[in-house]
Amino acid sequence: GAWAELPLFDGAEWDEGHCSLVPTVCSILRDSPEVCGTFGRAYEVCGTRVVATIFRLQPGSRVLPHTGTTNRRLVLQFAVTGSEGVRFRVGEEWRSYAQGGGSDDGGSGGGGGDGDGHAIIFDDSFEHEVEHGGEADRFVIYAALYHPELELEAPAVSHATGEPGTCPESKTNGECQAEDKAEAGAETDEGSTAERANMRGPLAGLRKLMSH
Predict the structure, then answer these.
(1) How far apart are the C-alpha atoms of 50 and 163, rounded to whole Å?
(2) Residue 127 half-sphere exposure, CB side, CA atoms within 13 Å?
(3) How far is residue 8 from each of residues 17, 19, 30, 37, 39, measured CA to CA in Å?
(4) Is residue 113 within 8 Å of 104, Cβ to Cβ?
(5) What is the DSSP string of 42-76?
(6) Could you say which of 16, 58, 86, 205 has the lowest number of CB atoms within 10 Å?
(7) How far apart are CA 142 and CA 25, in angstroms?
(8) CB contact at 8 A, 95 and 111
(9) Is residue 182 classed as helix, strand or coil in its secondary structure?
(10) Cβ contact 185:191 at 8 Å
(11) With 50 as the cut, is the pLDDT of residue 48 above it?
(12) pTM
């Protein structure tokens, strides 16, 4: 068909058969605490059982306008190949994956993606749609992420180490995650916004994958 997917993670279990086809992608996403399901309750919190997957869209296809189920998540779409000629709309604004990003009217606005090997992140609770006017199949890695401003009850395990009892209930996910990464020796970027910091893990890993 014009549209197809390779499911990787439903928020509770990883599809090991499919992950055997893309082991590096699954490894990066498994190690990213931003991905819904890391703390459990993926469906209740993020409103989806499609947490990580690879989508294919054929040329000439259109994904009709639709909305997500909640604003407690953000959606990451990482363009692997075939992004040229594809454009998408979120709310009232059209964007493309074309190199340099920006809007269709030639403006230089950011956030629209930079073509293959780059990602877009958006709130899919706004109406959105996709049109493929290119010549090659578009493949994107899709992941549902906890919204960086979402406050959840802290889990009984460390987000970074998985050790029990290291994250007190008085702290938010963001606070626990930041402390765990610091203790694990992760590099910090004090100038980043909360959203950029929350997305850094999967984006860095996926971009490194595409550089080879």
Answers:
(1) 27
(2) 5
(3) 9, 6, 10, 12, 17
(4) no
(5) HHHHH--S--EEEEEE-TT-EEEEE--S-SSEEEE
(6) 16
(7) 11
(8) yes
(9) helix
(10) no
(11) yes
(12) 0.70
pLDDT tens digits, residue range 31-44?
A: 998 999 877 667 78
Using one digit for the tens of pLDDT, what is the confidence trace for 81-104?
Answer: 999 899 989 999 998 876 434 445
Separation between Cα atoms, residue 58 and residue 204, nearest integer Å: 27
State how far the alpha carbon of 114 is from the alpha carbons of 21, 54, 84, 96, 200, in Å: 26, 19, 10, 8, 16
Q: Are 122 and 147 in contact (CB under 8 A)?
A: no
In angstroms, the CA 150 to CA 110 distance is 24
Question: Tens digits of per-residue pLDDT, 99-141?
Answer: 434 445 443 333 444 588 888 889 999 999 999 999 999 999 9
Angle 23-30/194-210 helices, nearest 10 degrees?
A: 160
Query: Which residue is listed with tokens 């606070």?
Result: 175
